[in-house]
Amino acid sequence: MTFHMIFVLIVIIAMFVALVLEIARPDLIVFSALVVFLLTGILTPEEALSGFSNQGMLTIALLFIVAGAVQKHGLIEEMMTKWLDKSKSVKSSMIRFFMPTSISSAFLNNTPIVVTFTPMIKKWCEDRGIAPSKFLLPLSYVTILGGTITLMGTSTNLVIHGMLLDRELEGFHLFQLAVVGFPITIIGFIYLFTVGLKMLPNHLGFTEKVQADSREYIAEMTVQSDFPYVDQSVQKAGLRELTGLYLVEIIRQEERVSPVRSTTVIQEGDRLIFTGLISTIADLQNMKGLTLETGSHLALEDLKNGDTQLVEAVVSHQSSLLSKSIKESQFRSRFDAGVLAVHRDNERIQSKVGDIVLRPGDILLLLTGTDFIRKYQQSSDFYVVSSLDAPSNLKDNRRKGWFALGTLISLITLVTAGVFSMFKAMLLAVFIFLLTKVIRVDEAKNYLQFHVLLLIASAIGVGAAMTKTGLARWIAEQLLAVVEPLGMLAILVIVYLLTNIFTELITNSAAAVLMLPIGLEIATGLDVHYMGIAVIIAIAASASFITPIGYQTNLIVYGPGGYKFRDYIKVGTPLSILVMFVTVTVVHMVWF
């Protein structure tokens, strides 16, 4: 090994450890590694920036906008609700819902699909007395499986496609991955609706769990005439910085004040509603002029009114809130919303809300204004998994929705026919949507997930450093020295397993980009066609079923389904083994 190879390897190991330990956001960690390679001269500026002009990465950016335009008008959600309502049994409902869902995820980004359908499925389950946990994890799994069917089904397919084109190799055509994608989707369905269904837990969702234990979450105090701070602000009364408690709402006769600001004036007779560690309420009881309403039957649902609502949100991997306490992030003033409770691994965090340091996958129960969901639906800080009210101009929305869907189907047909490349087709789709005002420019900008694009572009640069220094070839040679005597099937299994382990521990796009240079070197060393190896890496990078952190859709359903980490291991491990077995077998038969 040369010095440059050793240096690149050390930086990549450090990057990998930082990703696993969640020291910072994944995009910032991978970008930092890229900056190190640029500053030390391992990569030239052109090489370091090559990922930012990668065709696959740019196609993903356009697909974010196209998916947002198609889903914005609620047409797919409306059709799926009607379709679901026709079912008679739980199993038939699952089949009726998940078949079209997996097909739609082959052509649309699966993250917004899961964000959109999670509250819809939750409500449908609750209305029928079914545990949402029986539906939500399969929702994530079938969208992952459906995304493997086409080139545009998931970002990893497009990233690998773009990297192959950059190396002047032939990329994937639209349905090339379907030779593996269709079989694993069908087998995944059979597993989920038989063995998997029995293994899925019967859990209450986060909000339902909180509402069932309302007395542990809220307390009511009444302001008497002898309270020293009557007609003074919340700040002066010392109710802003309480140990373990948070003043979430003031009920004043028929009026409700929420969220409560530091400048809000307290009046005699006000009912002060607190949430947090109710066991610390004794501190408040010692304050003169405040009396605890022991007979209060106030529940969390009662906090909702015309101006406020309860909202559930899942903290994302790319959130700017990570590694900060809720107080440090100034959550209340930044989002105009109060945090009622935080759950992690299906357990409420027993701490003062303001002191909780957030991690990816934490579920927040928020008391917000009525426009919160619409305003933060596209936020990179969290996935909002509460229902959005139907827009008032339904007729216009339906018309634009059909137009957007028709445009997408038409352009996909042209891609299939070879008239356009995927990049050109999506570029034309975005141009048409902006020209016809299906979406506005500011909406298109909001649909772009810059953190994902930065991660992918930076990871491509890191992959370039592995190739340029010869590290990818060296790793490939070491792997072949061990595995080659065992035969081609063993080599495919090792490539699949390494990619899949990286995906579960870091992210799918980073795993794909790190493994592709190694995979191509393995193909060169064996003197076989690279396409089979590229397909193995594409499928393995997407097939994340064993942890909630490996794939963003698994993270989205984590809290709403009330799952524990072990539920993913129990249900996802057999599915992961099945998918690996089918993928390796099909690739070996078709390409080797």
Automatic annotation (TrEMBL):
One MF annotation (Gene Ontology) recorded for this entry: monoatomic cation transmembrane transporter activity
Compartments it resides in: Membrane
Domain RCK C-terminal: 205-290, 298-382
SUPFAM superfamilies in the record: TrkA C-terminal domain-like (SSF116726)
Membrane disposition: Multi-pass membrane protein
Main location as per UniProt: membrane
Transmembrane segments: 6-21, 28-45, 51-70, 135-154, 174-193, 402-435, 447-467, 479-499, 505-523, 530-551, 571-591
Name by which UniProt lists this protein: Sulfur deprivation response regulator
Species for this entry: Gracilibacillus halophilus YIM-C55.5
Taxonomy of the source species: Bacteria, Bacillati, Bacillota, Bacilli, Bacillales
